[in-house]
Task: structure prediction
Amino acid sequence: MQSGEGPSEKLTFQLTLRRRGISDRAVLRAMEEVPRDLFVEPEDRDVAWRDTALAIACGQTISQPFVVAYMTEQLQLKPEHDVLEVGTGSGYQAAILSRLCRSVLTVERFRTLADRARARLERAGCGNVEVRVADGLNLPPEIGQFDRIIVTAAMAGIPASLTDRLAPGGILVAPVGPAGGRQTLVRVQRNDDGLSRRDLVDVRFVPALPGLAREM
Ligand code: SAH
Result:
């Protein structure tokens, strides 16, 4: 039997997400519907539905499904939301987001990853996602404002160039902490009287690096 495609693997996947506390039905449905096996490297297809992070090209990783579901749940997405993702990687997180909001702009510093993610997102039928090669730590104001922002690479701190992109009432979720050290998922909300911050759970992400990758 091909374990990557067996119904029992997908069932276990859903049960694991529920057992770990994911309860938002729309998020669970998106996690069930997006084919994770399309976003992992070909040699990892048979373990695509396991709840683990996996290596992708350019020394990066596709996040653990539980973390993808948890961060998505924390964003409290609505169908009319425009979302920014920093750190396209495989494109998997963007595919999950795309089912729950109006539009996703996802930026990646490696051209190779951006090109591959764009092709996968097209194959997965995610027509409302735009993939751009850009430095998410230094986005120009012209990029506009977003109802939700998700960062999927660990930052030393959350730069104003990102919180400035949050629309009123907007929510940002990002891992904050040193590379390889203790990182905490942080949720920032833009309220009438400024920004409020809440620490959620400890996580482990590859670091956010400044500038476009020289080796693309
Ligand atoms: N969300 C991805 C996982 C991303 S791993 C997925 O679902 O597969 C983190 C990604 O962030 C890596 O691809 C890395 O190259 C990218 N990244 C790191 N620093 C960045 C920056 N400053 N701007 C844009 N992307 C960045």
Notes: DSSP finds six helices and nine strands in the chain. The two ends are 37 Å apart (CA to CA).
